[in-house]
Amino acid sequence: MLSSSSRELIHASVPVLREHGETITRCFYARMFERHPELKNLFNMGNQQSGAQQQSLASALYAYAANIDDQDVLAPVVGRIVQKHVSLGVRAEHYPIVGENLLGAIRETLGDAATPELIDAWAEAYGLLAGALIDEEARVYREKGVQPGEFMPVRVARKVRESATVTSFHLEALDGGSLPAFQPGQYISLALHVDALGLRQARQYSLSDASRKDVWRISVKREADGSVSNLLHDDIEPGDIVEVSVPCGDFVLDEHAQERLVLIGAGVGITPLLSMLHTSLDRWPDRAVTLLYATRDGDHHPMKDEVESLAGTHATFATHVCYEAPLAGDQQGRDFDRAGRLDLDVLEPAMLPPDGHYYICGPETFMQAQRSALRARGIDAARIQCEVFGPSLVAHLN
User: Fold this and answer.
1) What topology is assigned to 4-144 in CATH?
2) Helix axes 94-110 and 14-35, enclosed angle (nearest 10)
């Protein structure tokens, strides 16, 4: 438990973190990578260049300080951090390195304002958080039966173009044996060596089909500056070997619920929802399922035929598709239901029941808008789950 004197100092530092948080985190990463360049393999260097990683850490520091007395608020965020760390192979010995450089960055940024008492308080707070993460990550590693940092080689069995920007990769075990089971909604990390960076880089990709022993499917969007996604799209072909983590993530389907399942996605955010959709229709065919999906146009509509086939063969499954800017060949009533952005207010009330279970995945602003619309309709927050990464992971705490 954090001492009362340290708690007071942490609380007092909240305004400082709001003002100087990103300066501190930029300094932190620069210090750490200079002293420990091997850790660049653990971090998304694209996010480093864009500033997203610094913003994410600054948000996390602020949220931790602002909510240090309310562990119930912090617990869901800590749980998601643990899952991501396990997927990347974070180890216990990394935490002292992070702590040393974080405290050094606070001293360097705040100067004389970083009194010994303040640094000691943050050292105590960081030590408690690090200990909790180390213990929980060790538990998850044991539960999954892997060692920290352990990736397994798999073979690309098929490569399927799903849209103008999304391609699916079907992965199989090298020996033709079984792959670990996963919960619908989880992701894996996939690691490739990026020659342009001289680094091994890992990215998380949602598993986009129901869990099967013989094959996993991930569906990857090509990002304009995505070093790994571009390598996958351009260079990786069937027969190639790639390294992946065990499945991780806590954005998962509640397999005990019987009420209507409502899946709300945009763009490549459809991928974990497809895993939930296939699983629900396969295992509980009588459960009502609705997919509400938004994308740019027909060229950017992945898995269109797959979803339409499911809708045609399952009376319990309904869809509503929005194209923000339909192309000349896109036909309303055939390819999509409504032009423009997804607007929950125009939907029939029966599609959004108060006792439904809602799962949302897509760009951060999309998820925020859909969650707000559901809450405005009286949907209990406990019935709404969002797949969040980066700065949005702690946005609701700030």
Assistant:
1) Globin-like (1.10.490)
2) 120
The closest alpha carbon to 266, from 362, 342, 369, belongs to 362
Concerning whether 137 is annotated as a catalytic residue, the answer is yes
Measured distance CA(8)–CA(381) in Å, rounded: 31
pTM: 0.93
Average pLDDT value for the chain: 93
Residue 113 pLDDT: 92
* CA dist., res. 36 & res. 28, Å (int): 12
Q: Looking at domain 261-395, which CATH architecture does it have?
A: 3-Layer(aba) Sandwich (3.40)
Alpha-carbon distance of 44 to 181, in angstroms, equals 26
Domain boundaries, the chain: 4-144, 152-244, 261-395
Catalytic residue among 22, 64, 137, 293: 137
List, edge to edge, every strand of the sheet that includes 384-386: 338-339, 317-323, 289-295, 261-266, 357-361, 384-386
> Within 13 A of 191's CA, how many CA atoms are on the CB side?
20
pLDDT of residue 18: 86
Whole-number Å distance between alpha carbons of 26 and 239: 40
* 293 belongs to the catalytic site: no
The catalytic position among 62, 64, 95, 293 is: 95
Say if residues 216 and 171 touch (Cβ distance below 8 Å). Answer: yes
Which whole number is the average pLDDT over 176-183? 94
Residue 232: how many other CB atoms lie within 10 Å: 22
Q: What is the pLDDT of residues 345-364, one digit of tens each?
A: 999 998 999 999 999 999 99
3-state class of 364 per DSSP? helix
Q: Where are the beta strands (DSSP E) in the chain?
A: 152-161, 166-173, 187-194, 199-206, 216-221, 241-244, 261-266, 289-295, 317-323, 338-339, 357-361, 384-386
243 pLDDT more than 80 = yes
Domain 152-244 has CATH 2.40.30.10: yes
